[in-house]
Amino acid sequence: MPGADGDGAAWKKMIRIPAHAGEFGILGFLLWRALRQHRLRDPWAIATAAVLSLIAAVADEYHQSLVPLREASIWDVAVDLIGIAAMVAASYYLKKTRLEKD
User: Cα separation of 97 and 102, whole Å?
Assistant: First the structure.
């Protein structure tokens, strides 16, 4: 990200990192919900959603490497993976609480 700390680069990072993780976590969660609608069992739906989200994260970074003035970063993929892992944990939690209510 261009710019020195004096122009708010630190604030941009504090916003960008959770946003990146949240973005891919939400993507994974929505994929999980969509896959469940197609009668895919929860463990498979969660795993498939996580893998598809990770593929999207890698594809996003690859795309950034092709855009002038942008650069790809393995660290961004790692942040995305944190969001995806949070989605997996939330999905298992929701599944467990749903089963306890039934």
Answer: 9
